[in-house]
Design a protein that fits this description.
The chain has about 300 residues and is α/β, with parallel strands linked by helices. Helix content is about 50%, strand content about 10%. The longest helix is centred in the middle third of the chain and has 28 residues, at about 155-185. The protein starts with a strand and ends in a 13-residue tail after the last helix.
Amino acid sequence: MQLGMVGLGRMGSGMTKRLTEHGHEIKTYDPQVASTAKTLGALAKQLDAPRNVWLMVPAGEITEKTFQQLLKILEPGDTIVDGGNSNFHDSQRRYKEARKHKISFVDVGVSGGIWGLEVGFCLMAGGDKAAVKRLEPVFHALAPDDGYAHVGPSGAGHFVKMVHNGIEYGLMEAYAEGFEVMERSEFPLDLHEIAGIWRYGSVVRSWLLELLHAAFEKEGAHLEDIRGYVEDSGEGRWTIAEAIAEDVPVPVITAALFSRFSSRQEESFAAKVSAALRNQFGGHAVKAATRRARS
């Protein structure tokens, strides 16, 4: 099957290679890669009608700009696939806009990271049945066995991926907290070894645990060279917002997101306030802050 891939970052490049290895004809465009088509228009000319163009670019402004450009370039009967981490509300809107141009739009949640090339990408597709069906040869090539599903209508693919990433936040935070308890304990524990044995037979075994074991092996059991600063790409926030709208309590995911916020503070002002209050009402000792020069 022929496909245009827009975006050759960590995910897009791996997906392109995997599709090529499975016999698909992939044309590419990335303004940062010289060997690709020079423009989106040039990419479209390399594809036979009806064209299929897959966006694997950062969610938000870049995806929106690329989508709008493609609406002007592509023709009725063509299909746009968004495989990035877009907000599902945006995907529902883009589906409606594309329909006005008689262009199909499919939103696909993609999980697998840099390992997807080797083991396959989990795919969660949303959109019209006919459009999704036409793309299934590509989906089956990208995904491992039983790793692809058409999960629902427009927006459903990115909605399911959003919740997937929210769950991921909670899982990661649980591992992080548990290993910190062990790291600070009175026992001379080998965290690399413990992560290793938990991979076999334990009820907490998972791929994330395998990755943590690999991280300890590479960086050392105390991760000395890694700063505890954790970003978020938005999906956790969106999951919590939807949970609020649905009156669904999600305390674990919420706490995991707030923990990421805390990781970015060199020193928390809220903690300073708490320390000052304890000193005022109970006479509890406070620790002196390290003074930093003012510019």
